[in-house]
């Protein structure tokens, strides 16, 4: 009977360890997604990315707001002299992202269909940039309340 009791005591500890490993993996994925954004916009004449260091918590990055779970909730980088192509394939993997504000920059290229993966977006500002091509169907963004293009 002592073996069964010991196993039962181990179960909560093993569950906690698995949860922490999964949580750590999610956080490292979010860090990688934000660093992909920084790399895509590396030619920008801005200091906004100076705080985007892999040794810092992502919630301390300039322009990033996190929710209570420490997941990225908002990216607010409007009027930051950003130059480059927007990596929506990476950005829209941020599962808790509900605000994406990148207006008044020098972003170019096309707005890809990856935008449809940002299903939690409530606020989207991509206005006053230099995007070209057709804008994708965004009917999957059912929570969207504010749209600036």
In a few lines, what is going on in this structure?
The protein is of the alpha/beta class.
Shape: globular
Encode the helix/strand succession as letters.
HEEEHEEEEE
Number of strands: 8
Overall structural class, as computed from helix and strand content, comes to: alpha/beta
Mean pLDDT: 87
Strand content: 15-25%
Distance between the termini: 67 Å
Radius of gyration: 19 Å
Please give the order of strands in the largest beta sheet. Answer: 1-2-4-6-8
Number of helices: 2
**Largest sheet features:** 5 strands, mixed
**Uncertain spans:** 13-26
Helix content: 25-40%
List keywords for this structure.
149 residues, alpha/beta, 3-stranded parallel beta sheet, 2 helices, 8 strands, 29% helix, repeat
């Amino acid at each position: 009977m002592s073996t069964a009791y010991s196993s039962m005591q181990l179960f909560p500890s093993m569950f906690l360890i698995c949860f922490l490993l999964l949580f750590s993996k999610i956080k490292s994925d979010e860090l990688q997604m934000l660093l992909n954004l920084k790399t895509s916009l590396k030619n920008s004449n801005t200091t906004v990315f100076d705080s985007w260091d892999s040794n810092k918590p992502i919630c301390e990055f300039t322009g990033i707001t996190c929710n209570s779970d420490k997941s990225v909730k908002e990216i607010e980088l409007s009027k930051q002299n950003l130059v480059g192509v927007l990596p929506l394939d990476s950005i829209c993997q941020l599962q808790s992202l509900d605000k994406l504000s990148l207006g008044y920059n020098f972003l170019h290229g096309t707005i890809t269909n990856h935008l449809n993966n940002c299903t939690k977006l409530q606020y989207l500002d991509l206005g006053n940039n230099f995007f070209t091509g057709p804008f994708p169907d965004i009917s999957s963004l059912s929570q969207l309340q504010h749209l600036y293009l």
